[in-house]
Amino acid sequence: xxxxxxxxxxxxxxxxxxxxxxxxxxxxxxxxxxxxxxxxxxxxxxxxxxxxxxxxxxxxxxxxxxxxxxxxxxxxxxxxxxxxxxxxxxxxxxxxxxxxxxxxxxxxxxxxxxxxxxxxxxxxxxxxxxxxxxxxxxxxxxxxxxxxxxxxxxxxxxxxxxxxxxxxxxxxxxxxxxxxxxxxxxxxxxxxxxxxxxxxxxxxxxxxxxxxxxxxxxxxxxxxxxxxxx
Length: 230
Ligand SMILES: N[C@@H](CCC(=O)N[C@@H](CS)C(=O)NCC(=O)O)C(=O)O
Fold this sequence. Notes:
It is built from 9 helices and 4 strands, in the order E-H-E-H-E-E-H-H-H-H-H-H-H. The chain is α+β, with helices and mostly antiparallel strands and about 230 residues long. Bound molecules: glutathione (GSH).
């Protein structure tokens, strides 16, 4: 079977290797894109923060990181590579916007998230079910937050007319920014202090209101309860 681009279409027997749903922001991203394209898939969770976590991940993912997507074409072991792969495999799912200018913008902001925002990652790690005060805000962290707010406002204003997400309907760009939206809620970030005119706060609400986010959150909650019992 071939895709429209002439590439090989997989048999769709996907397994997504993920970390704990409460903590693994990189796992959440391709999981959301898989849900959005309606691809049937199995999940396999490797518990993070355990003595054997690294060894267990290496058994499944050559980079020693999650997420990884097992397909009949091989293991795709990076979040951005997975969502690109899904966009190729499911061209009708709209994982990238159809219009070239929107698609280029979506790829830019997705790549920017994938390769940057180190302070945001380190100082405000994803912890879905918890609520924490803001950490001490370094200049780098403040710049990271300001940049995310700017990206969300610009993208919503330019491309977001068809719905509440960055390009209206769900795209891979929302997958890349969804964990940030949860972090802003976990740490109660006062977005107005970072240049928000209400657009970024609305976007945080829109992401957190997605049914797929609710499903992931329920999974995180269940896993955390199970952790307490062990
Ligand atoms: N660039 C990778 C980053 C993946 C990553 O850092 N994953 C974390 C979990 S969210 C991980 O595997 N940590 C375990 C470790 O490094 O041992 C991607 O986009 O998939």
